[in-house]
Specification:
The chain is an alpha/beta fold and 495 residues long. The chain has 22 helices and 15 strands. The N and C termini lie far apart (43 Å).
């Protein structure tokens, strides 16, 4: 069954998977969605005994239908190999009655590795399939994790360059060090004198700039994206939710067909949308619990039906969730309208022009799988501390938000369904905040002293990704204002 891709705003139709991956963003500013969501053609019992790589093929072949079996299996083998520090790729850890899906065992110790390890393989394969003769410039905004994971994936990949913008004061010290020490002659990192939303908006504006697109083409460049707006990011994320259910079944933690809940700490909405797609493919999932931090724009949306970005932007201890414009929500909006691209485009225009939009009752009925929750920073810290004191298990500040929201959900609803919590980053990525949560204070000003303290607390070895940056030289010092992003890109590309 061939699947083609459509823009959520109606401007592009019948685009192949490889073309959608190369483009990243549709020409009308919309996001690419498959013309249908395929059903799994293997049973969960059959998947229960498969490796992560085998599961990835069974899921991804259904979405990426213009990739041959040989091409797709080569991409998967190249992505999910010894760069992960565990053969299982994504371990499931049971703690306090929930199952933590550890998505942080890759190169950069965050869940973005799960998709960004394979995206360079998908993109270079797609370029060959489409006879691309230009250098692909990956242009990306990051709230902390995507940037490093994308650079690690694309570093020195022939035929590509990558430019990453991050909010100068909106990432953890480890996140910043991981980016500014990144090797690779084709990598560039820029600290933006603003927040993530401005970085993301600026990148989208550059994609939509037709004059700039023509100028780039004349010089032998074309843009693509490594953000979660790229369908090549979203499809690999579906895999780990299918795998999680199969592993629970294989471990006899659930019965075949038993429904589970999934809780995801959510910023840009891609990670929980992937769980929704897994459900649509036939995985027995009941509730999708969308966990927000103090920037609770998604909680308010699911509670009221109104998406309103007109609010104070808060910097928190879970910075990858400090987002007021959740780009991937547009894909759910599109599905909730019955794939009405005109209606979706109108709502997105409202968001740009008025700063808000409202889902009607029919749309809200189609989104009842989702339940919003939020946790304050104090609740986040309390959840981290409680989990550690009761079990010895240490989680990061984003997973702490999910744990706090899940605990509130159970108390409020009495729902005792088995629940998978997406654990999205290693605690070492946010070591200072984690140590403060557990011990109540963190006196040291030296980041690596704090990391060593966390090692003693957790009993978990310091990841290679952290050890490497202890002595790594800073290679990227460029900064700019949001208004100068285009000028900065031109300087980097030598235009």
């Amino acid at each position: 069954m061939k699947i083609s891709y459509e823009s959520t705003r109606g401007g592009e139709h019948n685009v192949t998977a490889s073309q959608a991956i190369l483009k990243g963003l549709a020409c009308d500013g919309g996001l690419f969605m498959p013309d249908q969501i395929p059903m799994l053609d293997v049973t969960m019992k059959e998947l229960a005994g498969k490796t992560y790589q085998e599961t990835a093929y069974e899921v991804m072949k259904l979405f990426l239908t213009d990739f041959t079996e040989e091409e797709l299996k080569a991409c998967i083998a190249g992505a999910y190999d010894s760069k992960f520090d565990t053969e299982t790729i994504v371990p499931l850890v049971k703690a306090e009655g929930a199952y933590y899906l550890e998505l942080f065992h890759g190169n950069t110790i965050a869940f973005k590795d799960m998709a960004l390890s394979i995206l360079p393989y998908l993109m270079t394969t797609a370029a060959r399939k489409n006879q691309v003769d230009k250098e692909i410039v990956i242009l990306t905004a990051t709230s902390g994790d995507t940037g490093k994971a994308a650079m690690a994936g694309f570093a020195d990949v022939p035929g590509t360059r990558i430019i990453v913008f991050y909010p100068k004061d909106g990432v953890s010290e480890i996140q910043k060090l991981q980016m500014v020490t990144q090797k690779g002659d084709n990598t560039a990192v820029v600290a933006l004198h603003s927040n993530f939303d401005d970085a993301q908006t600026g990148v989208k504006q550059l994609f939509a700039d037709k004059g700039f697109e023509k100028e780039l083409a004349e010089k032998g460049f074309q843009f693509s994206s490594a953000n979660s707006i790229n369908i090549g990011r979203l499809v690999p994320q579906v895999v780990y939710y299918v795998y999680a259910y199969a592993k629970l079944l294989n471990n006899e933690e659930i019965a075949d067909g038993e429904k589970i809940n999934i809780t995801v700490p959510t910023g840009n909405f891609g990670n929980i949308l992937a769980a929704y797609l897994a459900k649509q493919m036939g995985v027995p999932i009941d509730r999708l619990i969308c966990a927000s931090n103090d920037n609770k724009v998604l909680y308010d949306f699911f509670s009221t039906g109104v998406y309103d970005k007109k609010r104070e932007f808060l910097l928190t201890i879970s910075p990858s969730m400090d987002i007021l414009i959740s780009s991937n929500l547009e894909r759910l909006i599109y599905l909730s309208t019955g794939c009405d691209a005109g209606k979706t485009a109108g709502l997105m225009e409202d968001l740009t022009g008025k700063g808000e939009y409202k889902a009607d009752e029919d749309m809200r009925q189609r989104m009842t799988d989702f339940l919003g929750g939020f946790a304050t920073q104090d609740e986040d810290k309390a959840a981290i501390r409680k989990l550690y004191e009761n079990t010895g298990y240490v989680v990061d500040t984003h997973t702490g938000v999910a744990a706090a929201v899940y605990e509130k959900y159970r108390k409020e609803t009495g729902d005792r369904a088995k629940t998978v919590i997406a654990s999205t980053a290693s605690p070492y990525k946010f070591s200072r905040s984690v140590v403060e949560a557990i011990e109540g204070t963190c006196m040291s000003q030296d980041e690596f002293e704090v990391i060593d303290r966390l090692r003693r607390i957790s009993g978990v070895d310091i990841p290679r990704a952290v050890e490497e940056i202890r002595t790594a030289p800073v290679r990227h010092t460029r900064e700019c204002d949001a208004s100068d992003m285009k000028k900065t890109v031109k300087e980097i590309l030598g235009l």
